[in-house]
TrEMBL record:
Its main location: other. Disulfide bonds join 871-898. SUPFAM superfamilies: Concanavalin A-like lectins/glucanases, EGF/Laminin, Fibrinogen C-terminal domain-like, Galactose-binding domain-like. Residues 1-24 form the signal peptide. PANTHER family: CONTACTIN-ASSOCIATED PROTEIN-LIKE 2, PIKACHURIN-LIKE PROTEIN. InterPro entries: ConA-like_dom_sf (IPR013320), EGF (IPR000742), FA58C (IPR000421), Fibrinogen-like_C (IPR036056), Fibrinogen_a/b/g_C_dom (IPR002181), Galactose-bd-like_sf (IPR008979), Laminin_G (IPR001791), Neurexin-like (IPR003585). This is Contactin associated protein 2. The lineage of its organism: Eukaryota, Metazoa, Chordata, Craniata, Vertebrata. Keywords: Cell adhesion, Cell junction, Disulfide bond, EGF-like domain, Membrane, Phosphoprotein, Repeat, Signal, Transmembrane, Transmembrane helix. Residues 184-365, 370-544, 711-898, 960-1148 form the Laminin G domain. The keyword Membrane applies. It comes from Cyprinus carpio. Belongs to the neurexin family. The chain crosses the membrane at residues 1190-1211.
Amino acid sequence: METPAGTGLKLLLWILSHISISQAASPSSQKCDEALVTPLPHNAFTSSSVFTSGYAPGYAKLNKRGGAGGWSPLDSDHYQWLQVDLGSRKQVTAIATQGRYSSSDWTTRYRLLYSDTGRNWKPYHQDGNIWAFAGNSNTESVVRHDLQNPTVARYLRIIPLDWSEEGRIGLRFEIFGCPYWADVINFDGQGVISYRFKMKKMKILKDVIALKFKTSESEGVILHGEGQQGDYITLELRKGRLLLQINLGSNQYGSILGHTSVTSGSLLDDHHWHSIVIERYRRNVNFTLDQHTQHFRTNGEFDHLDLDYELTFGGMPYSGKPVSGGRRNFKGCMESINYNGENITDLARRKKLDSSSFRNLTFSCVDTHTFPVFFNGTSFLQLPGRRDHNMVSVGFQFRTWNPTGLLLFSSLADGMLELALNDGKVTAHINVTQQKNMRVDIASGSGLNDGEWHDVRFLAKENFAMLTIDGDEASAVRTNSPVQITTGSTYHFGGYFLRTRASPVQRSFQGCMQLIQVDDQLADLTAVEQGRMGAFENVSLDMCAIIDRCMPNQCEHGGRCSQTWDGFTCTCDGTGYTGATCHTSVYEQSCEAYKHLGRSSDSYWIDPDGSGPLGPFKVICNMTEDKVWTTVVNDLATQTAVTGSSRERRTVLQLNYSASMEQVTAITNSAEHCEQHVAYACRMSRLLNTPDGTPYTWWVGRGNEKHFYWGGSVPGIQKCACGIERNCTDSKYYCNCDADQKQWRDDSGLLVYKDHLPVSQVAVGDTNRPGSEAKLTVGPLRCYGDPPTVVSFSFDVGNGPVELNVYSPTLLNDDQWHRVSAERNTKEAILQLDQKYKEVRPAPTQGHTRLELYSQLYVGAAGGQKGFLGCIRSLKMNGMALDLEERANVTPGVKPGCSGHCTSFGMYCRNGGKCVEKYNGYSCDCSTTAYDGPFCSKDVGGFFEAGTLVKYNLVPEVVAAASSLDEKSVIHNLPVETNLTHEDLTFSFSTSTSPSLLVYISSKTQDYMAVVLRQNGSLQLRYNLGGLREPFSIDIDQRNLANGQPHTVNISRVERDIEVQLDHYPPVSYTLPEASDTQFTLVKSLFLGKVFETGYIDPVLIEKYNTPGFVGCLSRVQFNSIAPLKAALRSRGSAPVSHQGKLVESNCGASPLTIPPMSAATDPWHLDAGADFPFNEERVIPDGVNRNSAIIGGIIAVVIFTILCTLVFLIRYMFRHKGTYHTNEAKGGESSESADAAIMGTEPNFTETIDESKKEWFI
């Protein structure tokens, strides 16, 4: 038998070995941030032009001063570019730029293109757009951009878009990244690679497939596998989109259909690399294309993928079942193919796989260059042609999203030729003027504005013209109109802007063209680019900058997306939603809302979450009672008979509702009360086996949890209704059925704990004995009650009841005063809420007009209605103020004044938290503080790694406040103003590295505020408000604060007066110089940890404090009424905050250590067991700081630790301490994939679930 110490040692060795394996297996975890440009020779750089030899592109290296100090082109216009050849493919992660040294030349904005071959450039994309990088505002400061989407390329090209107004284009730059290498296979469209399985048949539960591909073909099978049972997996290109098809199995009767089809991406035939990852576990699939992941679940009920023999890459297998649908093999390149841990590309290189179908298998990518041209709507490309010829022959390929545009225009010797796109069709128009305005008009194709490449061929000669689209000769359009053609000398593609006698109807084109042919000769666009032939304007050569704005689909709730080159539109028909992006629901949120519209009881579509992800669904609204009931029915028949069940093999009855579980949950969450009737009719069939037995029957509710109480009882009490009311047939039992009598008995009642509803399954377990019978009934789910968002005004003057409703966009139970005004006169009735929301109802032209009332006035409640809970003040009727306070003194249940729980307990909401009244207590609203927790006392902190930053955009706060408040409230309640004369900044930090930047607040001017840690670890506050030559600096403390201990900083400024408090020391006052301005003008953004700004930044901050940035913990960060760090950690896209790098929430927000130190029990820096704290010892300890002390302390710690470990293992070997704990949770429910799994995997004994003692061994 193994000793405990031996077990512990083996466990420790196992952990250490797996740590070392993990580290060795993931070299990619190393930072990819090498300077790639600096080591390159001069001949690696090329450019569009050079001002003089001293301005050559080889001098454009960051921080270098050779030559004239950087690159400048001959002309500063939008046709210039600077290009670098990295020598081989590299992974590129960042770019940094500078202006030309000691000059007035710099680039303020630029684009980045990349390529593997130096041709067919692709612009860098970010956030769904062709990205324009912010450049420099002077010659020396370095502006770096970390790429949100790192790319792999050999050639990079910078295109200046804007430059210095004082000078010309000037540039020095650096590219950051690391080496990249991968096995590449070139597929010729004929051969496939076959990966044979080790076994003839594979039953696969989990798949991980990863690869990269590039192609210029829009069709082709990338991988395929199939089995004789009908299972298959296929990944292929269809019209430039990826199509993944999976079938895990269908049954022979067709009742279970496993086919699942998912599409992703578009425009994938751009001959650029795209990455694919397919991860499948059972029926759950993650399908990732270029970092965009779709999560889906396959159809059917089977979990395994049954494949036979092989999996093929590059096409369908040649043997086996006949290929359907005319699928083509893949033509292009693939690299880094991995299938379930097997490197397919490496196996193919080592000839371990079958590649016999290839004529010549090559392991380098063969590029077929087509030289695309991009037109932006203001462009044209002019090419020469044969003059005075009697035949026109042109051809080209194009792709666009626009339904209209000019493709080609040529002035004939006597007339004009125009090829244009009209309503998605290509039209050809010839007009010869001398032949009595002889015209030729033909059209071909349809829907050609789909973003795909389309081929156009046009031929015209004497009395003949033919237009062919996509090479389909059968559908080519011909005409034999009598016409004589004499060609001109030029052809304009993509635009014609000259005002001539003969001009085209369309003037421009937005899209791409390639393979342009004139007079049956392929145009030499390289010569055009070099200026040796033709002309062009505003075109981008050798690239196609097309963007699919509908992928991913920006239309919500299944809306259909259509697009032009500049934008997209959504068609919402049949979705149940409306608006520009199908965001707004056309249905009401509840039955209560339909009642307010005057509707009667019926079936209605409702949408509980409005514009949320849940779709609308149908419910029954019952409005005949005092309450408005919402009813959702299920498919279980009344009195369903159950036979043949036992405790070992229970009969499980599944209930399906008219709405999904998520939709039903939305109803129960928003309802005030829900109930569901259950009934169990029995004869010799026990139900819960009370009082002390294991239940025979239970039910499963929301969350796949099983429950052991029945209708009429409550959670945790294993009884039926008769057991609660003490009137069971046999008083020894708590359910009538548990008496096990031969007569028919019944246990029924309402389940009312709404967090457990609805009932999704019932498991019956005692109907297999002779004479045992049971009948089960589960009624519909019924709920009533709505969140208070409506104020109603109703009356009846004899013409019938009238009800006016005003809807509030926010809840009215927000503990804020709301003003209501209701008026009825002979002309109209008016209801107004908060002086903003109003409804007016005209009075009928005939009928009664007088309102005659004879009873007393009731305020707060009336007979049979639920009373009002809250405060009412300033009640007036017809101008007369009613004394509510006097009546409150003599009315039970009503009190004068407006005091609540917050009056007595509001002081427990700390750190500026707001007390909110509740029906049975109070809560603390911490949303405007930098804290969290029930009393706003829990620190919210984050651990910053090197390069991590948080950016909070201060401008939207102003806009949002101004748009949602009236003018007067804006003045008092703005969280931050555009121009500040008063700032309050509070934060805590701990770090062991310096220098670094803690907080930086920028502006649209050169004003800023910054708090930095200097090289010696001391803290410095910097203000630059204008008026001074240098920023005003305050050295807050000369001590080294980069000591790993928490420190708290409070900074407050009012006009010129600044007060600073550090830790527990007294505040110190400072004054801005008289020459300094006092207004912080046009505040813009707040940064934590590092600055990444497009506007002006103090060069001193960039050079000394911004790289690599703050490393450590920040917490309690509050600027005026904004908590930026808390917003970054807790918001889900609602706040104007973002972060870069790894930001981990940590419990580092603590008070600084004082004397005497706090105990571990009260010290918020004390880590609880299991706390996740990203502590890195190597990162925290700086070189040369207390090194001797650290070594001595480390030796002592190791000795103490060794002694303690020895004692622990000895004690453990001699004694074993048993610990117990109690639980009342249903084990297995949370992690179960289905209710079946929850039932089968959970111990059926309810009493044991509550009282069972579990044993643990402490090691």
